[in-house]
Write a structure and sequence with these properties.
alpha+beta, Alpha-Beta Plaits, 3 helices, 4 strands, about 35% helix
Length: about 100
């Protein structure tokens, strides 16, 4: 299984309303992509200093599932409507995980 993590730092003009809208759009998107086993997206709680503004974590079965998620038309639509203009910096990583590691 694969854990895909993406973090974003947003441009200064991004508002709380924009963040709420992209969070809702991402969660709705995830529900429509069957390759996603588990999904979380939202603003950073900033419990520690520094860090990104927003994060996404998706658990998928394999590289084919990751490709299906990232290349899905719904993912592209969320990027086109929201993330494309919001992102100042992006970082991503894919980690191998054992089945049952996350719910």
């Amino acid at each position: 299984m694969i854990l895909h993590i993406a973090t974003f730092r947003f441009k200064d003009e991004v508002t709380e309303a924009d963040i709420a809208a992209v969070t809702e759009a991402l969660m709705r998107m995830a529900g429509g992509i069957p390759e996603i086993r588990s999904y979380a997206a939202g603003p950073n709680l900033h419990l520690r200093p520094a860090g990104a503004d927003f994060g996404v974590a998706a658990i998928l079965d394999d590289a084919a599932g990751l490709d299906a998620y990232l290349d899905h038309p719904s993912h592209k639509a969320v990027y086109d409507e929201f993330l494309g203009w919001m992102i100042a910096e992006r970082s991503a990583a894919q980690l191998p995980i054992a089945e049952g590691s996350f719910a």
